[in-house]
Every structure is written in structure tokens, then in C-alpha cells.
Amino acid sequence: MRIAYVTTDPGIPPFGTKGASIHVQEMLRAFANLGHEITLFSPRLSEASHAQMPGVQLRPLPSAPRGEDASARSAWALATNHTVGAVLAAEGPFELIYERHALFAHAAMEFAARHGLPGVLELNAPLIEEHASHRTLVRRADAEASAHRAFGAAGLITAVSPAAADYARTYGAHPSKVVVEPNGVDATRFAEKPTMRGPFTVGFTGTLKPWHDTATLIEAFAILRRDHVPDARLLIVGDGPERARIDARLGNLGLAEATQFTGAVPASEVPAWLARMHAATAPYHGDRPFYFSPLKLYEYMAASLPVVASDVGDLAQVLDHGRLGRLVPPDDPEALAAELARLAADRDLRDRLGAAAQAQVVAHHGWDMIAARVIARALGTAREVA
Fold first, then answer.
1. Which residue in 65, 222, 332, 350 is a FRET match for 171, CA 20 to 30 A apart?
2. Are residue 138 and residue 270 in the same domain, yes or no?
3. CA gyration radius, the chain
């Protein structure tokens, strides 16, 4: 099958290292593994090469304006809809249109509907609310109208969480078209059992953005060293705008020497870093909307790591209410420190949690499984419409 994969978000380089980029790469690879022919359309392909993703044809879209001018970028995004429709027609015919939902983007789903093709819209976040809260949102009425058009035209909407699914329905998606399909992992990348030598090491991976509650993690780490495990280490794999604040707090607490930052690393290096951790964390704020399906969580689980996560959103369901990982109240460093101390003292508990978590993701959360389910649903929806 010929699949057009469209991602017009100028903040997502398809072959980058951030979580969204990894998601794009894994879905492309999964479609290719299933024997499909993929053409990738993106405005961020200037830094890419065919060697980075064998079997995927690359078709660049016009680049977004440089700088932080939100008005110029929104105008570019709206104009890109005309380009997307034209290039899909020129590069076709396609048998399925798959799009990662972006702000102001609706052309790909309307193209699919207009030509009677299965159209799948992958929804990873409530983008309008996210931009309004964490970035600069301009032309809100245009953004809302575009969202209504995209969700209305899509044959299938795959939301990564129940909260994301609610957002789609809020903007006009018919409930019968919306399914929840959490993120996944390529468990084969984490097949080697971690050695976990040396002092007890607490880990975190991800882009250092405000919605990751690294502040609570830092305070919990201070308590852990002070009251439970004096030689504990903290390993942070990733980088982002919160790095300076984290550095400053670690310095104030006298923990800089006990902490290692890797900076942003390619996906190929993540398994080796996870192998240095004894326990991994996924901290989130309790007073903010939670709509994520954290890639880090599934990677921790695939790596047989015991996980400690904030009890927010649907993470209790993901971790089977404690069977696959430990849950702690959000914004509570004492509780997080106590759970980490428990794991530090109990190797058998760490092993049991890690083994159960790995078995779960291998059985249910492989990217190839996700891609196969999405295609089956999309084709089923298309046949029902026909």
C-alpha cells in the first residue's frame, strides 16, 4: 500500500531526537516493516537524508519563517494547506493518508475525504490549549476552525490518551471515529538486560519542558540522599529550556556533583543510558491537564526498569495500578523519595517490577502492532463509509 505520511508542525524535525521526532520515526519504520511504501511530507527535511530512514521517500514542504513571530508562522501554516493538497495530488496516487495533527492543518484529511481515501489523523496533544498555555497562540478562531475541519474530515482519529480523545470530540470529531491508541516502543532495542552497577542511580529521560515536574524530582533526590541512600546518583538524559533552572537548584542543594546530564542524545543511544539506571522516574504536576502518553514510560518498561510515576491522568491504568510500576501522589517529593528508597533497598522488587513491565510492553505496545491496528481500523472505517 502507498501511504502518505504528513507532518506539517515546524517544531518537529522528523529525524530529530525529541519525543515527537522519535514517534514519527517509529511509525514510519513500523509502516515500512509491514511492507508498505511511504512518502513523508514535512517542512523539516532539509537536514534529513534517505540514509536515515531506508524505504521512505522524502518530499519537503516549504519551510516556516524563522524567528518567534507567531503571526507569520500561523499565516505560513494556513497557507501550507494549499501546498499540501497540491503535492499530495502530484505525488499520488496514495491508498492511505496518515497525518500527525498540527496547529492550523486540515488539508491532508480533506484531501483524503475528497478522494475517498482512508484518512488517519494522529492526535498527540490538545494543541490549541497547549499553545495558549505554553507558547503564543494567535488567530485562535482560525485555529479552531482548522481543527474542526481536520477532525470532521478524518476517517479515523487515533488519540494517544483519553484526554486527547476528549479534545478531538470537543472540536467536532464524531465519537465513532475516535480511538485511543497509546504510544509504543520497539522492545528489541532494549533486549539486553541492564547491568546496573555502582551506586543506586535514579534516572529521567525526556525534553526538559515545564510539564515534566523535574522540580519535584530534584527535591526528592535531595531527600533520598539525605535520609536514605547517601551515595545515590541522578542521571538526566535529555535537554531543554528547564536545564538552567535545574542546574541552579542542584547547585543550591549541593547535588551538582551527584548528577549527570547527557544533553540531547539520539534514540540509538538511549538504551545504553537506561542500562545505567536502577530506577526510572516520570514526574508530572498534579494541577495541570494531563493528556500525554509518555514515550519514556514505555522505554523504561521495555528496558526492564522499575518505574516510579506520578499518579496523574491514566498512568495508573498504564502501570496496572502498581503491578507494573510504582505510583506516587504528584508534587510530593517526600512520597517520591520514599518509593525510590524502597526500590533501592529491595533488589527483588526492582526485578519483579521490571520483568512484569517488559512483558507487558512486548505483548501489547510494539510499534508494528500499533501500525497494524491503525491500518486495520482505517480500512475498516473506509469500507463502512463506502
1. 65
2. no
3. 21
